[in-house]
């Protein structure tokens, strides 16, 4: 996916980090982690980026036996927000009650963050009634023409929309109950991890090196325009999340607790067995 969350993959390719580990990596574009699951199960993908809720839901339903290989991205203030048009009567998160909110997909990480972010403001989200599905790039136009009241999206879209139409942030999902929330990771099947442990370990090492490099703003400014449509001049204005070195069990357990609270999971999910420890 051409988003800043998976910059480490592109950086590892660009800087030859995979090649240094003896790996040849070919990429394939997908829209969501849910789309990756049949491809992983069928063997047309070996490893895929995806959001944690997609992985955890598939694991609970026994759709696939997954292993998390590497962490990718986690929340910080401004990384994913709810915005409204500049002249909107919506002034704060509590005013979002009953409003139409654009989301890229229902029952995923974005709507999880929305549920959790609205709850402290006394707003209960009804996904079927209160959300409208559309790709992130279409949300600015939807805000402008009034087909939705608000939009929840990840960078670069909040920054671009603020610059283009003066959109205002009314809820920052990088603060409050979802601060530091893990967003996405790279996963494979348990079968692939068992049969190719050296390949998985090499992938982990390359991604870990790239994650460390992404702490430098100059590196982000260089790599992100190479695989996205984000202009180099805009990159310094973006509000980035974190690029963690490894999955954090306690933080992932927090994700599963919120998923249970909002009905995305039916029972507790044991995180430790899902992680590949090379």
UniProtKB/TrEMBL annotation:
Keywords: Signal. It is found in: Periplasm. GO terms for cellular component: periplasmic space. Pfam families: NMT1_2. Coiled coil: none annotated. The keyword Signal applies. Gene3D superfamilies: Periplasmic binding protein-like II. PANTHER family: ALIPHATIC SULFONATES-BINDING PROTEIN-RELATED (PTHR30024), TAURINE-BINDING PERIPLASMIC PROTEIN (PTHR30024:SF47). Belongs to the bacterial solute-binding protein SsuA/TauA family. This is ABC transporter substrate-binding protein. It comes from Streptomyces coryli.
């Amino acid at each position: 996916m051409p988003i800043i969350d998976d910059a480490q993959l592109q950086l590892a390719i660009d800087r030859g980090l995979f090649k240094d580990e003896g790996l040849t990596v070919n990429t394939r574009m997908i829209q969501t982690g849910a789309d990756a699951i049949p491809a992983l199960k069928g063997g047309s993908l070996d490893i895929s980026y995806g959001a944690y809720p997609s992985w955890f839901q598939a694991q609970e339903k026994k759709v696939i036996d997954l292993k998390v290989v590497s962490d990718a991205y986690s929340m910080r203030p401004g990384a994913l927000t709810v915005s409204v048009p500049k002249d909107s009567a919506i002034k704060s998160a509590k005013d979002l009650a009953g409003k139409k909110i654009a989301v890229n997909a229902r029952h995923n990480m974005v709507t999880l963050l929305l549920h959790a972010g609205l709850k402290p403001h006394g707003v209960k989200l009804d996904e079927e009634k209160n959300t409208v599905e559309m790709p992130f790039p279409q949300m600015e136009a939807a805000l402008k023409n009034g087909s939705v009241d608000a939009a929840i999206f990840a960078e670069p879209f909040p920054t671009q929309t603020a610059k283009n139409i003066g959109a205002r942030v009314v809820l920052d999902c990088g603060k409050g109950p979802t601060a530091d929330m893990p967003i996405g990771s790279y996963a494979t099947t348990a079968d692939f991890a068992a049969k190719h442990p050296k390949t998985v370990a090499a992938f982990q090492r390359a991604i870990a090196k790239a994650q460390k490099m992404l702490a430098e703003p100059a590196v982000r400014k260089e790599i992100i325009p190479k695989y996205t449509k984000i202009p180099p001049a805009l990159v310094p204005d973006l509000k980035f999340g974190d690029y963690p070195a490894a999955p954090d069990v306690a933080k992932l357990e927090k994700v599963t607790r919120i998923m249970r609270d909002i009905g995305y999971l039916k029972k507790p999910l044991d995180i430790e067995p899902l992680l590949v420890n090379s």
